[in-house]
Amino acid sequence: MEQTPATKPAYIPQKIYTSQASFGPAQYTSSIAVRELLHELLTDLAITKYQLGRLLGTTQSAQVYRWLTGTFRPGPLYLMRLLKICHMKMTGHPVARMSYIDWENSAIKWKDGNVTHNYHLFGSGGPLPSTERESRREMAVIPHQPARPDGAHS
Question: If we measure between CA atoms, which residue out of 101, 141, 136 comes closest to residue 118?
Fold first, then answer.
């Protein structure tokens, strides 16, 4: 029986997808894995590397190129945004027709010039009105804790 891509066993060896640094417990994605995955995603999403950079909201237009050449690797923010873009594609959003994503306000600017504000992104519904926001002081307040009965810390 011939195996199709869906029935082929996944071959994802750790030494290929993580760096081989011998120091520290953290393992980072390897440059080779990033390059291969990005090339596959660019093909599957039918977008250019520069369009991907705009969709991810990279601060430099050549950032995706640097990931592809192995000069840098994407950090956690861009990896999570990349996952969200892949999820949007899987759920039927025409990613190839997107021009820009405003990640803070859940807005998508389309190539035809239209902008949609349909709460595309998890946890966003646009900025909260200032009357509904908690100040930094309110968020940092530690609730009152009663004194210990044994008198410690008094």
Answer: 101
Report whether pLDDT(130) > 70: no
Q: Is the pLDDT confidence value at 26 over 60?
A: no
Please give the DSSP secondary-structure letter assigned to residue 28.
-
The count of other CB atoms within 10 Å of the CB of residue 63 is 20
Reply yes or no on whether the pLDDT at 146 is more than 80.
Answer: no
> Is 154 inside a domain boundary?
no
In a domain, residue 116? The reply is yes
116's enclosing H/E stretch is: strand 115-116
DSSP 98: E
Beta-ladder partners of 101: 108
Q: For residue 109, what are the β-bridge partners?
A: 100, 115
Match 């609730």 to its residue by tokens: 143
